[in-house]
Amino acid sequence: MTRFHRAGKNLLKPLTRRSFLVMGASFVSLMAGVLIALPAADRDAGIIEDEVQSTYSHIRIRRAGNVRTMIFVRDNGEEAYESQVNLKSPHVLRFSYLQHMFANYLLQPKQGKALIVGLGGGSMVHFLGKYDPEVAVDAVEIDPVVVQMAERYFGLRPRKNVKLIVADGFDYFAKTQTKYDTIYMDAFLKPSASTDDTGVPLKLRTMEFYRQIQSRLNEGGSVVFNINPHAEMNEDLKTIAEAFPQSYVFSLPNSEGVVAVGSLVPARMDSAALKKAGKALDERFKASFSFETVASHVRTPK
Q1: Burial of 47: CB neighbours in 10 Å, binned 0-12, 13-18, 19+
Q2: Rounded to whole angstroms, how far apart are CA atoms 214 and 166?
Q3: Alpha-carbon span 199 to 72, nearest angstrom
Q4: How many domains does the chain contain in total?
Q5: Best CA proximity match to 31, nearest among 266, 257, 296
Q6: Is there a single domain that holds both residue 44 and residue 126?
Q7: What is the pLDDT of residues 69-81, one digit of tens each?
């Protein structure tokens, strides 16, 4: 499932993206210690349409107009926004980190098969279905209830080139022989002793695992990592850099974390080449965000 975060009781406490504290019928976004007003259409948390306790999470579905949100309810009752779509345009990525998850297109403008680990409401599946519909997508999600909710409330359906697979991502990699052009790692659980403090399973943060998933890539393939700010983030980035022939790190706005791309292509693209690729993608996709802007957020290697 995709990442989520607790909204702290102290409104001035620094929080990362998608951290929302619901207050009655309205909410504000809490990022990097700053209160950021959301668009008027998003301020109403909306009515509760469904609520269920799965093995992994307490899941709540809210809807306000055309905006539907999948929420994970923490043990203290706080709501953490996990996924959100506008039902009239589900392919529009409403979170900055999701836009940056497709930075791999700067390196791989053409790809045939992709794997998404962590489904949530299926925003990434919707995006690929709209802008690159020929890509075959396998989406692996550990929680079967999340898959059910994505199908029931977020318009996600298995189809000719989309497979929804209920499995632990770690186990899936150990068993599958399928090769992919891109693997998107967006797997987060409730923080526990077996995860880091952002909810990433520790077994998915090792050099051994990074080597394993490389064996599931086609030539020239890449792995994209959604990385939340946490105490060991720089160590994680260092391990990724050591594990792949090349790695690219894209900083997100408001210190919300980073998206890292580990690439099997040994030759490095400089920032000018990335921006040129981004401009070409903007002309090709005409998406709701700019790939050229995403490219401009790449960090200079140390």
Answers
A1: exposed
A2: 22
A3: 13
A4: 2
A5: 257
A6: no
A7: 998 888 888 887 7
